[in-house]
Amino acid sequence: MGDQVLAGNPDFLPAGTQPALSARSLVTGAATTVLSPSFGGIGPTQDGGLATEKVAQIQPFAVGVQGLAVAGGELFLYGRTTGGGYPRFNSFQLDATGRPTGQQTPRSPALSEITCLTGDAACPQLEALGDGRVAYLWTNAEGQESVLTVGRDTTTIRNEPTGDAGGRIPGGSGHYVLHNGGSGTQKVVDFPSDTTDGETTLSRARTAAAVWGQVMWTPGSTQGAVVGKHLKTGQTVATIATGAPCTPTDLQAVNTWLYWSCGSTAGVYDRATGRRITVPADNGFLLRENRTTHELLLTDFHTGGSNGRWAVDRFGGHIAYLNGTYSEVSTVPSGVPASALAQTEAQTEAVPGGPAKSNPWQPVWQLNKPATWTLTLSNSGGTVVRALTGSTKGAAIRAAWDGYWGDGRRVIGTYTWKLTAEPRDNEGPALTTTDTTTVN
């Protein structure tokens, strides 16, 4: 049952020994007694079938939380159960108010222990990516770090060695993960799909940096300047004069907000309006930790006022933090206005040779917050021949079309797809985007 083998004692028992039901863990090999005494047998019921009888109420194991991450309305918890075994990730879905809905869900296989240095309060290094996955750092026996991702199912782990040690994950978005190595090297690792391991697509000298969608933001060559570079094309997409009186030592990017810090001085630049604000960020609020008192400080800069251990959902606005009690995590909404639904990236390339049942067209749209969606496929005459619906995993839409019409036909040609996404929080208008794909 699960990762436990259940077995009764042998039929021949020493005098005075009660038969018991025992369990042995397939993970650790530890043996425990589930029921003592127990009995077993097969007997007829009134209708000739099998019957069940409740014999004990087994309490669920609590998860000892060693780390957390939250993105796209999903709260990821890393830790082990009180019953022992290896650590793993579990998750809760959060509603628009930040409340958990439903039961916790396993999101990884059993994992090797994450190694933390003595006194490293920032370990384990976790980053929820907003597409249903979470990235984390793992160190091997030689001390070398790898960036790993899990979350799409309970069996898959994707990996990219960094060749470095003593590093950090300062951020990530969609399939991109940022790694700052202890050697001073900064890398961007791309995990484009669940079927292949990661790939280092950029390696550079370490500076302040942030990734949102397909754009990486780094300090420019002049004071206060920040440059946005497209990670796929390598093109510079924007150069921003933030007004910072320094070269930023910390950058964060969410939607149109670009946060910078020089230590004692910090601010936010709104790329949509050109507005400069002293100390705020993300969906219109900034969450910071006082490293001395461990207080969380929230600033809402829609109004400019301040309200006053942990993770923030950059793809939804929730805040989660450890209470200091074993297994106890609190979630709260930020209480500030949510950004309108927007697309940060799309992977909609046609399938070479055309989609098929064994190799469907599998587009991915990364959004900035959770949504429900409808995808229609129309033929050259404008008739909708297939409609697909669903909800985002995190804040990512993943669809699959095998090239067949709703009536079972497969007709070669060019098809127009139209995606309509409705924000799950009901804040702001729907998002619509369209293009074409081909059936060969």
Automatic annotation (TrEMBL):
Protein name: FlgD Ig-like domain-containing protein
Organism: Streptomyces regalis
Lineage top rank: taxon: Bacteria
